[in-house]
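User: I'm curious what two different proteins look like when written out as structure tokens. Can you demonstrate?

Assistant: Sure. I'll show them one after the other, since each token string lines up with its own sequence. Here's the first protein:
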Amino acid sequence: MKKVIVLSIILFLVFLHFDTRAFVAKHIDLKLKDNETSIVFLRLKNSKSLLINTLDNSNLFVLEYKNDEGIKEAVKIFDSRPNVFYLKNSLEKKVDNIYITRKNGMFRFRINNYTLCIYDDNGYEMKSCDFVYLMNLNKSFLVDENISTIFYDDDISKKWLLEVQESWIDNRIVSTDSFTILKLNEESYNVVVVPSTKGFF
């Protein structure tokens, strides 16, 4: 009888684990406060985007795009109905509290007192970047000590990331198997990684 009870408890816990993971993949509450902004790195099979939310606004900035398969489902997970912007050729734009510029082939997002730079093998000046997202990398990336966190795609070759991984700077992987979320407020930042169901996108 004890074996049946123990086996039932184990099966219940295993079922609860899978059920909770499925729930996480279907809905994520960002729990934003008045002065907070979240940046969700949406890396899907066919696109790379930033979903930037505040309590009042939601904007989706598409950085790399083949088709929109999965984007609508991914955005629904965060209960967002964002304004959508395709940034391939944009030079300068202001959207809500976000200032976007493109210089030397690199996008810079200025949000609250922080700058997120999108490095796509063309960037040069990293000194004014608080955060860097390495979307594509075909050479070694030289780390600047003023960067707080470096985000990079999981398909970038490890030989180009050697200095990033050996530095004292926080570095986070952006993959199709999870949602990497950067939460900003006026005084600090936090990075959260939430697993998604494999193959969901």
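Here's a second, unrelated protein for contrast:
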Amino acid sequence: MNEFRLNQMTGDVPLPLHLMDEEERRTLPVAGDAEWIGLSAPEIHMIVTAGWKHLGGFAGTVLNVHDIAKETEKNIRRALAASGYESEGFKAYQVRAPKAEGFRYTYTVQGTAMTAETCIVKTGRDLYELHFYSRTETLDECLPVWEELLASLRWQN
């Protein structure tokens, strides 16, 4: 099984996912300036993006995973308002990190129902955001792959 590395985070690339090359990455609208990777499984209509950034200064000390997840959800809700955004709620994730929290939501793009999850992890002053996207019709096939990826995550000191 292939692996990926992003700063201090490593994880497995479970099948049928593959690490996206630069050409594939250019097709995704990624916001911000964080370093990121993309994983894709076109045959089941699944994409995962993962990014990280270092939180310097006061923000790195006081921001917690819960507050970051709530702010991230608010930004996504605003960005997808015209696409029928609906929250399915917040949840804790079981990953090999001090704490991970995120949320699931649905929206529609070009007439296709989508389901997505965002998982926020903070280790020290490093912030990681993992985003999972799937067509709702293939969610039952995609969710076990997403859960396997999350279970494989590990951080190096």
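A detail about the second structure: The first helix runs from residue 22 to 25.
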